[in-house]
């Protein structure tokens, strides 16, 4: 479940890479993987090809960096992996991959390791800039002036933009499920996850006829939504199996909708929290519209309870699920990852 980033600069970078693929259509044929720019936290790679999703993932820093040639070469490297996989079933750096690199125009002697070192230097320089800028508010005039001078020199040398300028028009997202149509209880779980995390949950059309269930927001909101959605979905499945063991005639859709509705009622007790989350969702929606130029619309809900008994049993089962437990587990996992 890869986390992506949407911003004007990233959309421009993705368009450039898609243009590169179109220019090589005579070589690629029907091999056209999707492209995703991702923060790749806790992952040292510059990019990778995912054969299961037919997806090329590129580190976001390569889009935020102005060096388009470097970005293009990393992309061609991953496109060569996609080509070798589709043509020869190979994912390793073997002779098939090397031939694919030659065919697609990856420069001879291109090494991703050199780019990693350059990005690491830039990140270290960014950290120094942040420390120097904090020193620039020192009450000692000479120290403050010298710190600001050094910060400006590093900004120019490494072409670093201020963090707030980079993030002003940037939003994170994750797609947790793709299919042709969604059940009503899945839409309710979408709403619940959104109300707990503050991420904006939407159903959006993808390439072809598929629809994606996605969340948009800041990085922390999206990481939590990416964890909470499968947690709630798994708890729902567990409660349904328990109920099914006692009553084989229970209808899954109606039971699940009852359970999801029960979880929804639990959220209504925290009015202050609800208002804060609503503000977050509104901010995320406004940012999403501004960046993408897309307008989202809510789907009309048409609920028909096939079995009141199934709905009631699902509603009671929902009382067994502690929605705060998901957040505790997620925070614990994040703490372990930081160590």
Q: What is the overall pLDDT average?
A: 80
> What's the SSE pattern?
EHHEEEHHHHHHEHEEHHHHH
**Number of extended strands:** 7
Alpha carbon gyration radius? 24 Å
Shape: flat
Give the fraction of residues assigned to helices.
55-70%
How many individual domains? 3
Strand content: 5-15%
Query: What structural class should be given to the helix and strand makeup?
Result: alpha+beta
Sheet of most strands? 4 strands, antiparallel
The number of helical segments is: 14
Describe the strand arrangement of the main beta sheet, using strand numbers.
Answer: 1-5-7-6
How is the secondary structure organized here?
Elements: E1 3-6, H1 8-23, H2 25-28, E2 34-38, E3 47-50, E4 55-59, H3 61-64, H4 68-88, H5 95-104, H6 112-135, H7 141-157, H8 163-167, E5 171-179, H9 184-197, E6 200-205, E7 211-217, H10 219-246, H11 252-267, H12 271-292, H13 308-318, H14 323-338
Parallel strand pairs: 2-4
Antiparallel strand pairs: 1-5, 3-4, 5-7, 6-7
Helix pairs in contact: 1-4, 4-5, 6-7, 9-10, 9-11, 9-12, 10-13, 10-14, 11-13
């Amino acid at each position: 479940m890869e986390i992506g980033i949407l911003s004007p600069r990233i959309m421009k970078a993705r368009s450039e890479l898609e243009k590169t693929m179109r220019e090589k259509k005579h070589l690629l044929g029907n091999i056209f993987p999707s492209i995703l720019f991702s923060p790749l936290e806790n992952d040292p790679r510059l990019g990778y090809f995912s054969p299961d999703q037919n997806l090329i993932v590129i580190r976001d820093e390569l889009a935020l960096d102005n060096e388009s040639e470097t970005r293009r070469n990393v992309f061609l490297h991953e496109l060569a992996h996609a080509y070798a996989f589709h043509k020869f079933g190979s994912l390793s750096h073997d002779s098939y991959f090397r031939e694919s690199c030659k065919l697609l125009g990856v420069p001879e002697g291109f090494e991703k390791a050199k780019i990693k070192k350059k990005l690491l230097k830039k990140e270290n320089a960014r950290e120094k800039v942040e420390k120097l800028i904090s020193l620039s508010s020192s009450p000692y005039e000479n120290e403050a002036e010298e710190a600001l001078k050094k910060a400006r020199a590093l900004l120019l040398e490494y072409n670093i933009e201020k963090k707030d300028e980079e993030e002003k028009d940037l939003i994170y997202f994750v797609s947790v499920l793709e299919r042709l149509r969604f059940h009503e209880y899945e839409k309710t779980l979408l709403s619940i996850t959104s109300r707990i995390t503050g991420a904006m949950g939407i159903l959006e059309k993808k390439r072809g006829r598929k629809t994606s269930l996605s969340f948009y927001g800041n990085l922390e909101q999206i990481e939590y939504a990416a964890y909470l959605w499968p947690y709630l979905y798994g708890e729902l499945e567990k409660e349904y199996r328990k109920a099914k063991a006692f009553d084989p005639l229970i209808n899954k859709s109606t039971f699940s909708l009852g359970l999801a509705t029960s979880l929804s009622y639990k959220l209504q007790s925290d009015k202050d929290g609800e208002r804060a989350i609503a503000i977050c969702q509104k901010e995320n929606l406004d940012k999403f519209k501004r960046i993408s130029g897309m307008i989202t619309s809510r789907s009309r809900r048409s609920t028909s309870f096939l079995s009141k008994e199934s709905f009631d049993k699902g509603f009671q089962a929902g009382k067994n699920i502690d929605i705060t437990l998901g957040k505790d587990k997620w925070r614990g996992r994040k703490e372990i990852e930081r160590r």
